[in-house]
Design brief:
TIM Barrel; binds manganese (II) ion; about 350 residues; 17 strands; 11 helices; binds phosphoenolpyruvate; Alpha-Beta Plaits
Length: about 350
Protein backbone atom coordinates (compact mmCIF):
# COMPACT_ATOMS: atom_id res chain seq x y z
CA UNK A 1 0.00 0.00 0.00
CA UNK A 2 1.20 3.51 -0.86
CA UNK A 3 0.01 6.63 0.94
CA UNK A 4 0.64 10.03 -0.58
CA UNK A 5 0.44 12.94 1.85
CA UNK A 6 0.70 16.68 1.31
CA UNK A 7 4.20 17.74 2.42
CA UNK A 8 2.79 20.32 4.85
CA UNK A 9 0.96 17.71 6.95
CA UNK A 10 3.80 16.40 9.06
CA UNK A 11 1.51 15.47 11.94
CA UNK A 12 -0.48 13.20 9.64
CA UNK A 13 2.75 11.53 8.49
CA UNK A 14 3.70 10.86 12.11
CA UNK A 15 0.25 9.55 13.04
CA UNK A 16 -0.02 7.24 10.03
CA UNK A 17 3.49 5.95 10.66
CA UNK A 18 2.53 5.02 14.21
CA UNK A 19 -0.70 3.44 13.09
CA UNK A 20 1.10 1.29 10.50
CA UNK A 21 3.55 0.05 13.14
CA UNK A 22 0.67 -0.73 15.53
CA UNK A 23 -0.78 -2.89 12.75
CA UNK A 24 2.42 -4.98 12.50
CA UNK A 25 3.57 -3.43 9.23
CA UNK A 26 6.54 -1.21 8.48
CA UNK A 27 6.38 2.32 7.02
CA UNK A 28 9.06 3.30 4.50
CA UNK A 29 8.80 7.10 4.37
CA UNK A 30 10.03 8.88 1.23
CA UNK A 31 10.20 12.68 1.29
CA UNK A 32 9.52 14.38 -2.04
CA UNK A 33 9.31 18.06 -3.01
CA UNK A 34 5.53 18.25 -2.89
CA UNK A 35 4.43 15.05 -1.22
CA UNK A 36 5.58 12.66 1.43
CA UNK A 37 5.00 9.07 0.40
CA UNK A 38 4.69 6.20 2.83
CA UNK A 39 5.21 2.74 1.34
CA UNK A 40 3.78 0.13 3.68
CA UNK A 41 5.79 -3.05 3.98
CA UNK A 42 4.36 -6.26 5.35
CA UNK A 43 0.84 -7.61 5.10
CA UNK A 44 -1.06 -4.45 4.21
CA UNK A 45 -4.25 -6.32 3.33
CA UNK A 46 -5.50 -5.81 6.90
CA UNK A 47 -5.10 -2.01 6.67
CA UNK A 48 -8.30 -0.10 6.02
CA UNK A 49 -7.75 2.15 3.00
CA UNK A 50 -10.72 4.40 3.75
CA UNK A 51 -9.61 4.95 7.33
CA UNK A 52 -6.29 6.39 6.11
CA UNK A 53 -7.95 8.47 3.41
CA UNK A 54 -9.79 10.40 6.13
CA UNK A 55 -6.64 11.83 7.69
CA UNK A 56 -6.09 15.53 6.83
CA UNK A 57 -3.55 15.99 4.06
CA UNK A 58 -3.84 12.52 2.58
CA UNK A 59 -3.95 12.94 -1.18
CA UNK A 60 -4.18 9.35 -2.41
CA UNK A 61 -3.96 5.81 -1.10
CA UNK A 62 -3.48 2.83 -3.35
CA UNK A 63 -2.71 -0.83 -3.06
CA UNK A 64 0.24 -2.17 -4.99
CA UNK A 65 0.36 -5.14 -7.25
CA UNK A 66 4.05 -6.00 -7.60
CA UNK A 67 4.89 -9.60 -6.61
CA UNK A 68 8.01 -8.29 -4.84
CA UNK A 69 6.68 -5.18 -3.18
CA UNK A 70 9.28 -4.66 -0.47
CA UNK A 71 12.33 -4.65 -2.71
CA UNK A 72 10.89 -3.27 -5.93
CA UNK A 73 12.19 0.05 -7.18
CA UNK A 74 9.07 1.21 -8.91
CA UNK A 75 5.98 0.53 -6.95
CA UNK A 76 3.05 0.31 -9.29
CA UNK A 77 -0.49 0.62 -8.06
CA UNK A 78 -3.69 -0.98 -9.25
CA UNK A 79 -4.43 2.13 -11.30
CA UNK A 80 -0.88 2.23 -12.68
CA UNK A 81 0.34 4.88 -10.24
CA UNK A 82 4.12 4.81 -9.76
CA UNK A 83 6.49 5.64 -6.93
CA UNK A 84 10.25 5.22 -7.24
CA UNK A 85 12.33 4.15 -4.24
CA UNK A 86 15.98 4.93 -3.62
CA UNK A 87 18.55 2.14 -4.06
CA UNK A 88 19.62 0.37 -0.87
CA UNK A 89 23.06 0.98 0.53
CA UNK A 90 24.29 -2.15 2.30
CA UNK A 91 27.05 -1.49 4.80
CA UNK A 92 29.41 -4.11 6.24
CA UNK A 93 31.56 -2.76 9.03
CA UNK A 94 35.10 -4.09 8.91
CA UNK A 95 37.20 -4.90 11.97
CA UNK A 96 39.78 -2.51 10.48
CA UNK A 97 37.34 0.36 11.07
CA UNK A 98 36.42 0.64 7.39
CA UNK A 99 32.90 -0.01 6.16
CA UNK A 100 32.46 -2.04 2.97
CA UNK A 101 29.56 -0.23 1.34
CA UNK A 102 27.56 -1.83 -1.44
CA UNK A 103 26.26 1.12 -3.42
CA UNK A 104 26.38 2.31 -6.99
CA UNK A 105 29.82 3.39 -8.16
CA UNK A 106 31.68 1.49 -5.42
CA UNK A 107 32.09 -2.15 -6.53
CA UNK A 108 33.21 -4.48 -3.75
CA UNK A 109 35.82 -7.23 -4.22
CA UNK A 110 34.92 -10.40 -2.33
CA UNK A 111 37.56 -13.09 -2.68
CA UNK A 112 38.96 -16.15 -0.98
CA UNK A 113 38.94 -19.91 -1.08
CA UNK A 114 35.86 -21.90 -2.00
CA UNK A 115 36.08 -23.76 1.30
CA UNK A 116 38.09 -23.11 4.43
CA UNK A 117 40.30 -26.20 4.34
CA UNK A 118 43.04 -25.32 6.86
CA UNK A 119 44.39 -22.34 8.76
CA UNK A 120 47.46 -22.03 6.53
CA UNK A 121 45.48 -22.17 3.31
CA UNK A 122 42.94 -19.54 4.44
CA UNK A 123 45.43 -17.26 6.16
CA UNK A 124 47.81 -17.27 3.18
CA UNK A 125 45.04 -16.27 0.76
CA UNK A 126 43.68 -13.63 3.15
CA UNK A 127 47.15 -12.15 3.76
CA UNK A 128 47.75 -11.91 0.05
CA UNK A 129 44.35 -10.27 -0.49
CA UNK A 130 45.01 -7.83 2.30
CA UNK A 131 48.34 -6.99 0.63
CA UNK A 132 46.54 -6.29 -2.66
CA UNK A 133 43.95 -4.18 -0.85
CA UNK A 134 46.74 -1.97 0.50
CA UNK A 135 48.70 -1.87 -2.74
CA UNK A 136 45.71 -0.71 -4.79
CA UNK A 137 44.06 1.45 -2.13
CA UNK A 138 40.96 -0.72 -2.08
CA UNK A 139 40.92 -1.95 1.52
CA UNK A 140 37.50 -0.36 2.04
CA UNK A 141 36.24 -2.40 -0.90
CA UNK A 142 37.68 -5.81 -0.08
CA UNK A 143 36.10 -8.73 1.77
CA UNK A 144 37.00 -12.32 2.39
CA UNK A 145 34.94 -15.37 1.47
CA UNK A 146 35.22 -19.02 2.56
CA UNK A 147 32.72 -21.78 3.15
CA UNK A 148 32.66 -23.88 6.31
CA UNK A 149 29.41 -25.66 5.44
CA UNK A 150 29.68 -26.76 1.84
CA UNK A 151 26.78 -27.89 -0.32
CA UNK A 152 28.22 -30.73 -2.38
CA UNK A 153 26.63 -32.59 -5.25
CA UNK A 154 27.99 -35.88 -3.89
CA UNK A 155 27.67 -36.68 -0.18
CA UNK A 156 31.09 -38.32 0.10
CA UNK A 157 32.93 -35.15 -0.98
CA UNK A 158 34.47 -32.73 1.56
CA UNK A 159 31.60 -30.88 3.21
CA UNK A 160 33.46 -28.23 5.18
CA UNK A 161 35.14 -27.87 8.55
CA UNK A 162 32.09 -26.46 10.35
CA UNK A 163 32.90 -24.78 13.71
CA UNK A 164 36.62 -25.37 13.26
CA UNK A 165 36.42 -23.47 9.97
CA UNK A 166 34.65 -20.58 11.69
CA UNK A 167 37.44 -20.36 14.25
CA UNK A 168 39.87 -20.07 11.36
CA UNK A 169 37.81 -17.34 9.66
CA UNK A 170 37.54 -15.38 12.91
CA UNK A 171 41.27 -15.57 13.46
CA UNK A 172 42.08 -14.56 9.89
CA UNK A 173 39.64 -11.64 10.11
CA UNK A 174 41.47 -10.46 13.23
CA UNK A 175 44.88 -10.60 11.62
CA UNK A 176 43.93 -9.10 8.24
CA UNK A 177 41.09 -6.74 9.18
CA UNK A 178 38.98 -8.13 6.31
CA UNK A 179 35.32 -8.90 7.11
CA UNK A 180 34.08 -12.24 5.82
CA UNK A 181 31.06 -13.86 4.23
CA UNK A 182 30.27 -17.53 4.70
CA UNK A 183 27.44 -19.78 3.59
CA UNK A 184 24.61 -20.82 5.87
CA UNK A 185 22.95 -24.02 4.72
CA UNK A 186 20.38 -24.79 7.38
CA UNK A 187 18.10 -23.00 9.83
CA UNK A 188 19.91 -24.48 12.82
CA UNK A 189 23.18 -22.90 11.65
CA UNK A 190 21.74 -19.39 11.40
CA UNK A 191 22.09 -18.34 15.03
CA UNK A 192 25.70 -19.50 15.43
CA UNK A 193 26.88 -18.13 12.10
CA UNK A 194 25.15 -14.79 12.45
CA UNK A 195 26.96 -14.13 15.73
CA UNK A 196 30.30 -14.52 14.01
CA UNK A 197 30.16 -13.85 10.27
CA UNK A 198 29.95 -10.33 8.84
CA UNK A 199 27.62 -11.42 6.06
CA UNK A 200 25.65 -14.62 5.52
CA UNK A 201 25.55 -16.31 2.14
CA UNK A 202 22.55 -18.26 0.94
CA UNK A 203 23.64 -20.47 -1.91
CA UNK A 204 22.03 -21.42 -5.16
CA UNK A 205 20.70 -24.72 -3.86
CA UNK A 206 18.82 -23.00 -1.07
CA UNK A 207 17.32 -20.22 -3.11
CA UNK A 208 13.79 -21.38 -2.34
CA UNK A 209 14.42 -22.68 1.16
CA UNK A 210 11.87 -20.25 2.53
CA UNK A 211 12.38 -21.18 6.19
CA UNK A 212 16.08 -20.52 5.83
CA UNK A 213 15.47 -17.21 4.07
CA UNK A 214 13.19 -16.07 6.88
CA UNK A 215 15.51 -17.22 9.64
CA UNK A 216 18.49 -15.52 8.01
CA UNK A 217 16.41 -12.37 7.43
CA UNK A 218 15.47 -12.19 11.10
CA UNK A 219 19.11 -11.84 12.14
CA UNK A 220 19.26 -8.42 10.49
CA UNK A 221 22.65 -9.41 9.05
CA UNK A 222 23.51 -8.52 5.45
CA UNK A 223 22.67 -11.50 3.24
CA UNK A 224 24.44 -12.42 0.01
CA UNK A 225 21.62 -14.17 -1.75
CA UNK A 226 22.44 -16.25 -4.81
CA UNK A 227 20.15 -16.93 -7.72
CA UNK A 228 18.81 -20.45 -8.02
CA UNK A 229 20.65 -22.22 -10.80
CA UNK A 230 17.52 -22.44 -12.92
CA UNK A 231 15.55 -19.58 -11.42
CA UNK A 232 13.61 -17.09 -13.51
CA UNK A 233 14.19 -13.54 -12.27
CA UNK A 234 10.71 -13.13 -10.90
CA UNK A 235 11.00 -16.26 -8.73
CA UNK A 236 14.34 -15.08 -7.40
CA UNK A 237 13.05 -11.62 -6.49
CA UNK A 238 9.84 -13.01 -5.03
CA UNK A 239 11.88 -15.34 -2.82
CA UNK A 240 14.08 -12.39 -1.73
CA UNK A 241 10.89 -10.94 -0.26
CA UNK A 242 11.03 -13.67 2.39
CA UNK A 243 14.20 -12.02 3.69
CA UNK A 244 13.02 -8.44 3.21
CA UNK A 245 9.70 -9.08 4.96
CA UNK A 246 11.61 -9.79 8.15
CA UNK A 247 12.48 -6.09 8.16
CA UNK A 248 15.88 -6.82 6.65
CA UNK A 249 16.58 -5.21 3.30
CA UNK A 250 20.34 -5.66 3.64
CA UNK A 251 20.26 -8.06 0.73
CA UNK A 252 22.88 -8.32 -1.98
CA UNK A 253 21.78 -10.41 -4.92
CA UNK A 254 24.41 -12.61 -6.56
CA UNK A 255 24.26 -13.98 -10.10
CA UNK A 256 26.37 -17.16 -10.33
CA UNK A 257 25.28 -18.62 -13.64
CA UNK A 258 22.24 -20.61 -14.58
CA UNK A 259 21.83 -24.04 -16.10
CA UNK A 260 21.49 -23.79 -19.83
CA UNK A 261 22.58 -25.61 -22.95
CA UNK A 262 26.17 -25.82 -21.71
CA UNK A 263 27.32 -27.64 -18.65
CA UNK A 264 30.79 -28.92 -18.08
CA UNK A 265 32.33 -29.32 -21.50
CA UNK A 266 33.66 -25.77 -21.76
CA UNK A 267 32.04 -23.94 -18.84
CA UNK A 268 30.08 -24.83 -15.74
CA UNK A 269 26.95 -22.80 -16.24
CA UNK A 270 25.78 -19.91 -18.30
CA UNK A 271 26.24 -16.45 -16.83
CA UNK A 272 23.36 -14.06 -17.29
CA UNK A 273 24.94 -10.60 -17.30
CA UNK A 274 21.79 -8.94 -18.53
CA UNK A 275 20.13 -9.75 -15.25
CA UNK A 276 22.26 -6.99 -13.68
CA UNK A 277 20.33 -4.35 -15.57
CA UNK A 278 17.02 -6.02 -14.94
CA UNK A 279 17.70 -6.20 -11.19
CA UNK A 280 18.78 -2.57 -11.08
CA UNK A 281 15.74 -1.41 -12.99
CA UNK A 282 13.30 -3.47 -10.98
CA UNK A 283 14.67 -3.49 -7.45
CA UNK A 284 16.41 -1.35 -4.88
CA UNK A 285 18.98 -4.09 -4.20
CA UNK A 286 22.63 -4.19 -5.21
CA UNK A 287 23.79 -7.12 -7.34
CA UNK A 288 27.19 -8.78 -7.55
CA UNK A 289 28.61 -11.34 -9.98
CA UNK A 290 30.26 -14.62 -9.02
CA UNK A 291 32.29 -15.53 -12.10
CA UNK A 292 33.88 -18.57 -10.43
CA UNK A 293 30.80 -20.76 -10.16
CA UNK A 294 29.50 -19.69 -13.53
CA UNK A 295 32.77 -20.20 -15.39
CA UNK A 296 33.95 -23.32 -13.61
CA UNK A 297 37.39 -22.97 -15.24
CA UNK A 298 40.01 -20.57 -13.92
CA UNK A 299 40.98 -19.31 -17.38
CA UNK A 300 37.44 -18.00 -18.05
CA UNK A 301 37.03 -16.26 -14.70
CA UNK A 302 39.02 -13.06 -15.51
CA UNK A 303 36.92 -12.37 -18.60
CA UNK A 304 33.64 -12.73 -16.74
CA UNK A 305 35.07 -10.63 -13.93
CA UNK A 306 35.95 -7.83 -16.35
CA UNK A 307 32.52 -8.07 -17.94
CA UNK A 308 30.96 -7.63 -14.50
CA UNK A 309 32.72 -4.28 -14.32
CA UNK A 310 31.55 -3.28 -17.78
CA UNK A 311 28.01 -4.19 -16.76
CA UNK A 312 28.43 -2.02 -13.65
CA UNK A 313 27.72 -4.72 -11.12
CA UNK A 314 28.02 -3.68 -7.47
CA UNK A 315 30.84 -6.14 -6.95
CA UNK A 316 32.28 -9.56 -7.64
CA UNK A 317 32.93 -12.69 -5.64
CA UNK A 318 35.87 -14.78 -6.80
CA UNK A 319 37.48 -18.00 -5.60
CA UNK A 320 41.19 -17.33 -5.20
CA UNK A 321 44.17 -19.49 -4.18
CA UNK A 322 47.80 -18.60 -3.56
CA UNK A 323 50.51 -19.50 -6.03
CA UNK A 324 51.98 -22.16 -3.74
CA UNK A 325 48.86 -24.28 -3.31
CA UNK A 326 48.73 -27.30 -5.63
CA UNK A 327 45.41 -27.75 -7.34
CA UNK A 328 45.42 -31.48 -6.73
CA UNK A 329 45.41 -30.81 -2.99
CA UNK A 330 42.32 -28.60 -3.04
CA UNK A 331 39.20 -30.39 -1.88
CA UNK A 332 36.59 -28.08 -3.30
CA UNK A 333 36.21 -26.37 -6.72
CA UNK A 334 39.90 -26.70 -7.54
CA UNK A 335 39.49 -26.16 -11.27
CA UNK A 336 37.90 -22.73 -11.04
CA UNK A 337 40.11 -21.03 -8.45
CA UNK A 338 42.28 -18.24 -9.84
CA UNK A 339 45.81 -17.80 -8.57
CA UNK A 340 46.55 -14.66 -6.59
CA UNK A 341 48.92 -13.22 -9.21
CA UNK A 342 46.13 -13.57 -11.80
CA UNK A 343 43.67 -12.00 -9.38
CA UNK A 344 46.00 -9.04 -9.07
CA UNK A 345 45.92 -8.57 -12.83
CA UNK A 346 42.15 -8.84 -12.72
CA UNK A 347 41.98 -6.07 -10.14
CA UNK A 348 44.27 -3.90 -12.25
CA UNK A 349 42.03 -4.44 -15.27
CA UNK A 350 38.94 -3.77 -13.20
CA UNK A 351 40.33 -0.50 -11.86
CA UNK A 352 41.34 0.55 -15.39
CA UNK A 353 37.93 -0.32 -16.78
CA UNK A 354 36.28 1.62 -13.98
CA UNK A 355 37.86 4.81 -15.28
CA UNK A 356 36.08 4.49 -18.61
CA UNK A 357 32.75 6.24 -18.58
CA UNK A 358 30.24 3.90 -20.15
CA UNK A 359 27.06 5.89 -20.54
CA UNK A 360 24.99 4.47 -23.35
CA UNK A 361 21.60 5.84 -22.37
CA UNK A 362 19.64 7.64 -25.08
C1 LIG B 1 29.95 -21.05 -3.04
O1 LIG B 1 29.94 -19.82 -3.27
O2 LIG B 1 30.82 -21.59 -2.38
C2 LIG B 1 28.89 -21.92 -3.61
C3 LIG B 1 28.69 -23.15 -3.17
O3 LIG B 1 28.23 -21.32 -4.58
P1 LIG B 1 26.85 -21.70 -5.33
O4 LIG B 1 25.79 -21.73 -4.27
O5 LIG B 1 26.69 -20.59 -6.30
O6 LIG B 1 27.06 -23.03 -5.99
MN1 LIG C 1 32.95 -23.05 -4.74
Amino acid sequence: MIIEIDKEYEKTVRQIREWIIQNDCRPDVLYGDLFTVIAVEGDATRLDKEYIENYPGVVRVWRISSPYKTISRKVIGDKHQKVERKRMTVRIPGPDGKDRVFRDGNPIFIAGPCAVESYDQTASVADALSGLAEKYGIRHRMMLRGGVYKPRTRPWDFRGLGEEGLDILDKVRDTTGLPYVTEVMAVDQVCGLSQRADMLQIGTRNFQNFNLLEAAGQTGKPILYKRGMAAPLEEWLSAAEYIALQGNKNIILCERGVKSTTHGDYNRSHIDFDVIHAVRNRTILPIVIDPSHSAGFSELVPFQFAAACVYQANGTMVEVITDKIERKNIQCDARQAVRIHVYEKMIQAFLDLEKIKMEFRE
